[in-house]
Amino acid sequence: MIWLSMTLFPPSDWVYVGTFPFRVPSGATLIYIVVLLLVNLGGPLMLWWGWSFKKRRDGNWDVAVVRVRKRVD
Questions:
Q1: pLDDT-based confidence at 35, cuts 50/70/90?
Q2: What is the domain partition of the chain in residue ranges?
């Protein structure tokens, strides 16, 4: 899906590095790649980093008490 969506961007220009042709991505493609990396890598890494500051990994949402009914014959 990433490759397919990138084909919708305008084509890029060819630049020659020595004798090797190299395709430089257009501005829209670069913005798309940066946003894609920030969302898919940066977001989870920030959550992982922020979680290191949390000492207690429980809270008020853990107040449910499990009640098992006695079997009635």
A1: very high
A2: 2-55
